[in-house]
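Let's practice the habit of predicting before peeking. Look at the sequence and jot down your guess about where helices and strands might fall. Then scroll down.
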Amino acid sequence: MTETPLRVVHVIAGLGQGGAESVLWRLATYPGQAVEHVVVSLTDEGVYGERLRAAGITVHTLGMPRGRISLGGFMALRRLIAQAKPHAVQTWMYHADLIGGVAARLAGVRAIAWGIRNSGAHLERSSRSARMVLRACALLSGVLPKAIVCAAQDAAERHAAKGYRRDRMVVISNGYDLSRYAPDTAARDRMRTQWGLAGDVPVIGCVARWDPLKDHANLLRAVAALVRDGRDAGLRCVLVGRGMSADNPELMTLVDKLDLRDRLVLAGPSDDVPAVMNGLDLHVLSSCAEGFPNVVAEAMACGVYCVATDVGDAAYIIGDTGVVVPPEQPEALARGIETGLREVASRGQGRAGEAGRARVLEHFDLARMVQSYVAVWRRISGEPA
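Done guessing? Here is the structure:
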């Protein structure tokens, strides 16, 4: 017996490079599911809009200013949802949860699932608008959504403590396409050539946009400590993401203060994360707050050894396959990087990352994630399987 097809409208702030955006991409394009996906970006189509359209997904963009709402954009969203007649509306992150939830309700849709991607930690470092929207969402969490999907158990607990309705929460870990995120020797050679690095140079890297919660200062201070004490093994550090370029004055001030220019490759954003991961010997997550950090699982899936701060579900993702250190402690992170580089040097890059890839395959399979989302949408919409 075939499943009854579902129509789901996704509302997201934007379609640029980010964890939520990549999960939406994997979810919407997973083959063989009985779901028609429609994606609405409150801002622009970023990097994923064209890819989604190429995969046959309907994409709408509303052109709202980032982090703000316009009356015209809100009314257009309400019309789009009403015209689509979805079985369910899935929203992604605080602003889209609030704006999309209200628009969906005004369009007559009650089967609304919110999506929490933020850890809920260190929100005082987030923008004022994000803090205000979170408070509004907490107040409305018992009224607007029928389900609140969290990417991490830690995030669910933190948001419940901030007033979100605990009885509406469900945790769905992110899933990964292990055919795309996989060890790739050709990609490794290509990226190292692009970065101007010899094949035998120890290369650590961090894939993260410039954001206070990503705490690049923690990583750079750890690297500086390794260099200062002669513990660096000649490493180079590749920074990948929005803002990871020489035209970021805050970043360059920090780099020059620590005298690290000759140790860094500022690679900027990339639309080929699997290739980037393959270029590294070690991936480092230096954040002071996360929900479910995609980049850790993505690196592990590519067979790359990981060092991460103990934020969000990072320790759960890594298990015993890598190194976990306290956040906001550069010396602890330096020791973790030193340990990771020794592991890679002694076992070889491929062997050192085997356990991590096996863990992702066992616990973070993409099919399991898709099935879990579809089950939520069927439950809240009352549509039978």
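How did you do? The chain has a mean pLDDT of 93.
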